Amino acid sequence: MPVPILYAHLISKSFEGVRALKGVSFELLSGEVHALVGENGAGKSTLIKIMTGAVFADSGALTIGGQTVAHNSPGVARSLGVAAIYQQPSLFSHLTVAENIALVLEEARPWRRINWKARRERARALIEKAGASIDPERLVSTLSMPEQQIVEIAKAIGANARILVMDEPTASLTELEVESLFKVIAELKSQGVGIIYISHRLEEISKIADRVTVLRDGEAIATRDAPSVDRSELIQLMVGRAVNAVFPKRRVQLGDIVLRLHEISNRATGVTSVSLEVRKGEILGIAGLVGSGRTQLAETIFGLTPSDSGEIFIQGTPAAVRSPADAIRHGIGYVPEDRRKHGVILEMPITVNTSLADLDAVSHGGLIHSADESAMAERFVEQLRIKTPSVHANVGMLSGGNQQKVALSRWLATNPKILILDEPTQGVDVGSKSEIHALMVDLAERGLAIIMISSELPELLGMSDRIAVMRDGTIASILSREEATQEKILLLAFGHALAGQTA
Amino acid sequence: MKRYGQEISVAIAIATLAAVLAYAAPGYFSGENLSDLFLSNMPVLVVAVGMTLVILTGEIDVSVGSIFAICGVAAGVIAKAGVPVLFACLAACAIGAALGALNGVLVAYVRIPSIVVTLATMTALRDGLRWTTQGAWVENLPRSFQWFGLTQGAYPVAALLTAVVLVGTVGWGIRNLAAGRAIYATGSNAEAARVSGINTRRVVFLVFAATGALTGLAAVFNSVRFNQIPSNAGLGLELKVIAAVVVGGTAITGGRGSIAGTVLGVVLLGAIGPALIFLGTSAYWEQALQGIVILSAITIEALRSRAETREAGLAAHRV
After folding, report:
1. How far is A72 from chain B (nearest CA, A)?
2. Disulfide engineering: B264 pairs with which of A261, B10, B119, B217, CB 3.0-4.6 Å?
3. Contact by Cβ (8 Å): B264, B87
4. B195 and A343 in contact by Cβ < 8 A?
5. What percentage of residues in chain A have a pLDDT greater than 70?
6. Do A198 and A318 sit in the same domain of this protein?
7. b vs e for B96-129, b when ≥16 Cβ sit within 10 Å of the residue's Cβ?
8. Which residue in A325, A341, A370 is closest to B197 by CB distance?
9. Is A343 within 8 Å of B188 when comparing Cβ atoms?
10. Tens of pLDDT along B208-238?
11. A249: in domain
12. Which residues of B are less than 8 Å from A364 in CB distance?
């Protein structure tokens, strides 16, 4: 019986009061591939960040290679043989392969003379060990994605990694490249390296993993033997919870089609041939894993990354949406995902934030009437119950939920016909969350067409009239409110056809 | 009042300096000296108004000194060719606007960082001018070009009026016009501004063009004061201007600042040098003292904004 080379015991971690991990225990044996699965936000990344020392746990114990690690840090983790490979390789693109490998392996005394020959030879040997042949003299910027991953693996082998964390290593690889990666993994296993493998592709897990642990809402729900586990059982475990939250959803009589997309594509962002329609009074939910193209679709509709083929119809007439200004003119509003980055301007007052997308409403001939502007802000502060000492307070001083309400006010001020909400309740406290949900229902009743992107399945199921599930930049399927279940959505998002499944 | 913290600090510094001078060197406040002080700093103020807009959008323009030299020389050459003085002055402003627009295109549409673009245009324009003029100054200016500048009565009044009108309209405009709002929003959070339908690239382009035009205007006011126009005018002007804007409380990262602050910054930095002479100190200290003023302004500003962030962070944790 092999000994655990990594053992995490009852790890807990909170971010700004939100508990990301609630006493998770996890064990990795030498020569084992242990897969970690879960929905978006289940706590996978937090757990591996704690192992690699990027994040410090609030409580719990971490044992690596038989040693209790009291104060983990990236340096400590590396010296204990922990290495991580992320979905996007983190290499220096203007340096050569040999130089990238040398950076982590060679001691950096300032006056040391570089032995270029030894450096090249070692790089060649390590890449060979990783099962590939890449010229060590090539610049990393000229390498393909899988080649860059090989370099990352070579780095890990060179650092004598005993524990290798792979976070979605196959996300950007083709079938063939995946096969060769699996050969490398098998080779590493035979050398006794323990591998923590995170992937959204469940079929890979039964193929290469020995065990699989399911995380849900920051808890380790179950650990199973991977070769024998049933995929639908895994999905059941990931979803698990009942939809117990009460949503203020009221069915609204749907009106005419307000927005229709016909085979919209944007090659640069990966949005591929999306067709859908939204009616007056309807809330269309958009589900999908991170990276499935949900936000990119929203940005295309809103003109931030205009489509390069396909057509957009608004109330039946073709509309050219080449910029956000065009979108606003056509009655589209967009509350983006990362409100601190794209949504609100933190160092400006509520008044300015509220009027920004519709300055015409509070100005005449370009001259802003500050009384009108304050009145507009007052109206929304009252209507959305934004908690603030005054409309002249900077938005940075408000809580997350109230910031989100300010972002919403800006778009409601434009009197939109179509409102796109990207993760409208992410990082928002429970109270504000249900207020935002109630507001969405009110808006739908008043005849708005709402598109809501969300990673939270209960929210999607509770609020949407229909749910479009996205995968690989396109819509896998659209489910009606009646037929949608958490299992069906996840199956579609993970890439399984619904036919033959009894959910 | 917190919003005007930096402006108030600078105003206090100016008042302190004035009090010391009033006690130790009352001659400083003679009409003649004040008028001289104003006239030599008026071009700095005009350029600084434009620079405030550029820095508010989060950009920088270090080419204003070179544009200043070109516009001055151009005004003289055109006037010597027999073109009426008024048109020669307008042409100088137009040339400034065109050069500023060149910066603007490269920054906003080609998307090269503004420090790189304007460093390049600063050098290229300066050396281009040197090569064209072979270092020669523009002399034998027509009498009509000079009567305005050399007339003791009219010129200071015109300069004062121009400065007041410019400061008044721009200062009021960026607070009250939608266009001004677009400048602040672009500098605070360009991404959020873009999502709100503001054409942030056009905003950046226009502030560079406007700064070029104002630099041309400043060059005209400077060149009519003297008998010749030096082809090396405006050396180091960009530093004076940027320093004044930053001392006046405009955040170098954009989004925060005011024209009033810039006026105070120009006054403080412009008043210190001559004050040293009046106080009997060596003029060699001028640059060092200006440096100290700039450093303290930036330090105070950094401490203040850090305190604000901390406060905001705390507030965000309260639900």
Report:
1. 27
2. B10
3. no
4. yes
5. 94
6. no
7. bbebbbbbbbbbbeeeeebeebbeebbeebbeeb
8. A325
9. no
10. 999 999 999 999 999 888 888 888 899 989 9
11. no
12. none
| pLDDT > 80? residue A200 | no
A327: nearest CA in chain B?
B197
Q: Given the DSSP bridges, would you call strands A33-37 and A59-64 parallel, antiparallel or unpaired?
A: unpaired
Length of chain A: 503
- What pLDDT is recorded for position A397? 82
Query: What is the set of domains in chain B, with CATH numbers?
Result: 2-317 (1.10.3470)
Q: Which of B178, B189, B315 shows the shortest C-beta gap to A359?
A: B178
- What confidence tens digit (pLDDT) does each residue in A104-134 have? 777 767 777 788 888 899 999 988 887 778 8
Q: Is residue A453 a contact partner of residue A251, using CB atoms and an 8 Å limit? A: no
Same domain, A137 and A277: no
Closest chain B residue to the Cα of A342, Cα to Cα = B192
Edge to edge, the sheet with strand A474-480 lists: A332-335, A418-422, A449-453, A283-288, A466-471, A474-480
Beta carbons within 8 Å of A419's beta carbon, 6+ residues apart: A332, A333, A334, A335, A411, A443, A448, A449, A450, A451
**In this structure, how many other beta carbons lie within 10 angstroms of the beta carbon of residue A142?**
11
**Is residue A191 located within the same domain as residue A154?**
no
- Tell me the β-bridge partners of B270: none
Burial of A131 (0-12, 13-18, 19+ CB in 10 A): middle
DSSP annotation of B138 reads: B
Q: Provide the β-strand partners of residue A197.
A: A35, A166
User: Chain A residues with CB inside 8 Å of B206's CB?
Assistant: none
Of the candidates A432, A479, A489, which has an alpha carbon nearest to the alpha carbon of residue A458? A489
A328, A342, A432 ranked by CB distance to B192: nearest: A342
Domain that holds residue A74: 1-81+162-241
